[in-house]
Amino acid sequence: MKYSLSICAAVVVALSCANAQMVSSHAPTAVRSAVAAPAAPVGGIEITGKPVVRVNGVTLTDRDLVREMFALFPYAKLHNGFPKEQEPEIRRGAMEMIVFEELVYQDALRRKMTIAPVRLDKEERKFKRQFGSAAEYNQFLASQMDGSKTKLRQQIARSLLIEARLNAEVADKAVVPVSEARAYYNTHSKEFEHGEDMAIQTISIIPPANANAETLKEARKRADDVLRQAKATKSYKEFGLLAEQVSEDDFHVSMGDHKVAESDKLPPQVVNAARAMQPGQVSDLLQLGSAYTIFRLNSHVMPGKVKFEEVKKELTTNLQREKYEKLRAALGKRLHQDAKIEKL
Question: Domains of the chain by range and CATH?
């Protein structure tokens, strides 16, 4: 399972259950979210500079909040606002994120962390390249940074300090070496065992319910004709296109593809026939209930255990994501402990 070790990762993970379109960028916060919110109101959302929360005496405004909302759900620009049923959750997540980032930033300042001027110059140039023209960039400066390039550099520096502190405290510590992944694989071997799996495509001719003898005969004739066409196909695509054209089962909309399934989830007639076939072969006509069915065997895997090399990348990614989320949660808890946070 893929994941993102970005500043917004934890909030995005939390919100992704509500909407799969919520995304975050790998860019630092200011560089990512400074251009997230539009200069003009979208979907009735206006940016006024009104204070929304105070973190250890530092005031954050609705401008910070809305930027984060658009960073979490950039599709709002395309849809003229946020989905009404999801906006409260997006707003809550954005509020949590701007508070968390401010706490991380303050922690970086306490540790006297700095950003090298050459790095700051590089990020500023990269940031400017996001705009289509100098006029667009100047409009952004005017509407979001009070026309101040110095303020923009300060925001970028803030962003880079947050990123650097998170890297040191979370991302760098979340790295999972191959030895750790292998140890997990060895001690959780049951998770990597599998039964007999098959992947098939089907084409079915289904007579109407209570069909008379003549109708059944006609259905069988059509099935025999389709069988000849199916046997002539040479690939997944050819069989799938035929399924889309003539099949009457629910899988015809996806090229007849049933994906991978355990053998005990398939009809016994299909399993028995598949065991005598090679991947790529097309079965003879089978009668499954009232349906005349033909299937193509795409893969057949006997019971066994997935090799470590086959799961190493995904397993390492999943373990790293889990470690990252725990470390980030621990950091958030620690920073909140003595913090004074006032919702305004």
Answer: 9-180+312-343 (1.10.4030.10), 196-302 (3.10.50.40)
